[in-house]
Amino acid sequence: MTVPVSNTARIMRKRFGAWLKEAREQVGLTQLDLAALLDYAYPTTISQIERGAAALPPGELHRWAEAIRLTPKKVAETYLYYTEPFLYAALHGKDPYALEKLPRPEPVLMRRSSRTGPKPS
């Protein structure tokens, strides 16, 4: 099943990409440098992730963290904040959508009207 990506999710993914770009630039790496460090076949992968056009694979978090000289925990928390805001909110008690002043996306699941549960807070 394909889940549509909301406009809000796109904005959040772009903001995560911008955060990664800033972290990369702070350590003086170009996209080409980072691609070489990560042994990526195509340096455009870095550009796509930083623009929010592609997602950072969660399995790459440790490698990116090492390359941009941040802790894996910091990269993972920021990743959750921007790409999995509901999980971040459950873990940290802070709503990234509210903090970013963005509307919460509508649920994509179809529900039976007689069995709707409580609305998430």
Structural description of this entry:
It is a single chain. Helix content is 55%, strand content 0%. By secondary structure, it is mostly helical. It has a single domain (7-102), classed as 434 Repressor (Amino-terminal Domain) (Orthogonal Bundle), CATH 1.10.260.40. It is elongated. The two termini are 26 Å apart.
Task: Name a few traits of the molecule.
7 helices, 121 residues, mainly alpha, 434 Repressor (Amino-terminal Domain), 55% helix
Q: Can you give me a brief rundown of this structure?
A:
By secondary structure, the protein is an all-alpha fold.
Structural topology:
Blueprint: H1 7-26, H2 31-38, H3 44-51, H4 61-67, H5 72-83, H6 85-92, H7 96-99
Helix pairs in contact: 1-5, 2-3, 4-5, 5-6
**H/E element sequence:** HHHHHHH
Main beta sheet: none
CATH C-level: Mainly Alpha
Average pLDDT metric: 89
